[in-house]
Design a protein that fits this description.
Helix content is 39%, strand content 15%. The chain is an alpha/beta fold and 357 residues long. The protein has a seven-stranded mixed sheet with strand order 8-7-6-9-10-12-11, with helices on both faces. Helix 5 runs antiparallel to helix 10.
């Protein structure tokens, strides 16, 4: 009988090591099959993950600082971090999270676009179309129920890294809705098709979001760059709440959907927005971030293994360096009514980035 090949080594291209106060969080893609450990469906080298380490593995839940473990266990955890089996959450922020609500069409959208802002200020992520099964990995394509569970677990880990709260609304992703089986990207002039095609769904989403944005929090809304129907529905629901005077425009800014904004024109999408009785296009505001916040964003994007390519995450980080040169930034589009509130947010972020730098 031919000898079974050794597991391929896991190598994460991380640029930093765990610090003493980092809090390791295990990724949910690990399976224990008797004496064998698998990650993303592939066997893991026992030298990296001995069977006796299962208890230590489960203890990596983001509550304990790295320094609290004995030396030998720290060595194992450091190996898992380098291989991408765990991620590092920074110490809890010393100040309370800001009153920010991020409307995320799917798990990962808020983090891809605004992970630096989340890392700095925290807040609450509201996942709208959070019931997903789509994945690029064959091992999970044939296991849709497992893929759906893991996609949400990825989101929870990412929010754990960022110190963000999470609300899951549970609407079904467009890829699994009959109306969009032939494709779910809309041309810019066809955004009204989203609401007209699924009017009952639009009303349910609008009602759900009305409850989530109640209060005085600043609200971050996807700009819907790229035309994904779920992003369009989320944005249009927020605009509907503004029209109904349920959501004040002075609390609203729009963020650039990633990775779509890497190859589509965010400024053109912003120019097409019409908000209020005297529509004025929103204007750009850069939100700077420190290198520590950029590192945290990179850590928070790593858990998304079923849909997001590492190369895409790296392009997003490079895009932030181009936007903020000589520093790093993410870009919002703000209304005249909300310019003061988000200008103050940008100033606070710039002050923190300068101090940390």
């Amino acid at each position: 009988m031919p000898e079974r090949p050794s597991p391929a080594p896991l190598v994460r291209r991380t640029t930093h090591a765990l610090s003493a106060d980092d809090r390791p969080i295990r990724l949910p893609h690990t399976e224990f099959d008797g004496a064998e450990v698998r990650f993303l469906g592939e066997p893991v080298d026992p030298a990296l993950f001995p069977a006796s380490a299962a208890e230590l593995w489960h203890a990596c839940d983001g509550t304990r600082p790295y320094r609290s473990w004995p030396y030998r266990e720290r060595e194992l955890i450091a190996g898992w971090h380098a291989a991408g089996l765990v991620v590092a959450a920074p110490p809890p922020r010393t100040q309370p999270s800001r009153a920010l609500v991020f409307l995320s069409p799917h798990p990962d959208d808020a983090q891809l676009a605004l992970g630096g802002l989340l890392a700095r200020f925290g807040g609450r992520v509201v996942d709208v179309f959070s019931h997903e099964t789509w994945t690029r990995r064959p091992h999970y394509q044939s296991r849709p129920a497992l893929a759906s569970r893991l996609l949400l677990e990825e989101e929870r880990v990412s929010c754990g890294v960022l110190g963000a709260e999470l609300t899951v609304l549970g609407h079904v992703d467009a890829a699994d809705r009959a109306a969009w089986q032939e494709g779910y990207f809309l041309e810019p002039q066809a955004v009204d098709v989203a609401r007209a095609t699924e009017p009952e769904l639009f009303e349910r989403v609008t009602a759900d979001l009305a409850a989530e944005v109640a209060g005085g929090s600043l609200v971050l809304v996807p700009l819907a760059v790229g035309g994904h129907v779920d992003h369009v529905l989320t944005r249009q629901a927020a605009l509907e709440l503004i029209a109904r005077k349920t959501l004040e425009p002075e609390r609203v800014a729009f963020y650039e959907d990633m990775p779509y904004s890497l190859f589509a024109d965010a400024a053109a999408e912003a120019d097409r927005l019409a908000v209020g009785p005297e529509p004025t296009a929103p204007t750009p505001v850069l939100i700077p971030a420190s290198e520590a916040a950029v590192r945290t964003k990179q850590e928070a994007l790593w858990p998304y293994r079923l849909q997001v390519l590492e190369a895409v995450s790296k392009r997003i980080v490079r895009h932030g360096r181009r936007l903020g040169a000589p520093g790093w930034a993410e870009r919002l589009w703000v209304l005249p009514e909300s310019a003061d509130a988000f200008g103050e947010l940008a100033s606070a972020a710039a002050e923190e980035a300068a101090t940390a730098g």
